[in-house]
Write a structure and sequence with these properties.
7-stranded mixed sheet; Aminopeptidase; alpha+beta
């Protein structure tokens, strides 16, 4: 069965709330400064066993990260790093003149701890600071964790993607 995806959007006319700054030994850094192989491992770990798991292997994940690193917007694409390893990420890409957050991923061991929200909120605040009026996201239908996260951050579904 083919997966379907939906588009979500959020107006940035008002500043998004500040990230809560979850306690812990982590830092939010530009994704381009994080280790490529570690980002690929994070992507695999985050997707494994979820609706977005298509049975990818390490080579697939590295190819996906290379693709993202080649087109992401560095000023807004972030990694949450602990002990030198990325544990969450929020990438921002430009599609037909619109900024999109894609993907957001958090390691399985660190899910539901606010790290994905922290990364996305930091991306949103930077986009707002730089005058971006609206941002989109594309979420696999049925990815309830992502649907809840983006709804909580003020995004609304606008229809099917593509």
């Amino acid at each position: 069965m083919a997966r379907t995806r939906s588009e979500y959007r959020r107006n940035l006319g008002t500043a998004p709330p500040s990230p809560t700054g979850r306690p812990g030994p982590h830092a939010v850094v530009p994704a381009a400064e994080a280790d490529r192989d570690a980002l690929a491992a994070l992507l695999l770990d985050a997707y494994r066993g979820t609706i977005d798991d298509e049975g990818e292997g390490e080579d697939d994940a590295r190819a996906a990260i290379d693709d993202y690193l080649g087109r992401l917007l560095p000023a807004y694409s972030l990694a949450v790093v602990e002990d030198g390893q990325p544990v969450s990420l929020s990438f921002v890409v430009l599609v037909q003149g619109r900024h999109y957050i894609d993907p957001v991923a958090t390691s399985a061991a660190r899910k539901r701890q606010g790290l994905g929200a922290e990364a996305v909120l930091t991306s949103l605040r930077r986009l707002h600071r730089d005058g971006v009026d609206e941002v989109g996201a594309v979420i696999t239908d049925g990815n309830l964790a992502s649907e809840r996260l983006f709804a909580r951050l003020g995004f609304s579904r606008v229809g099917p993607w593509g």
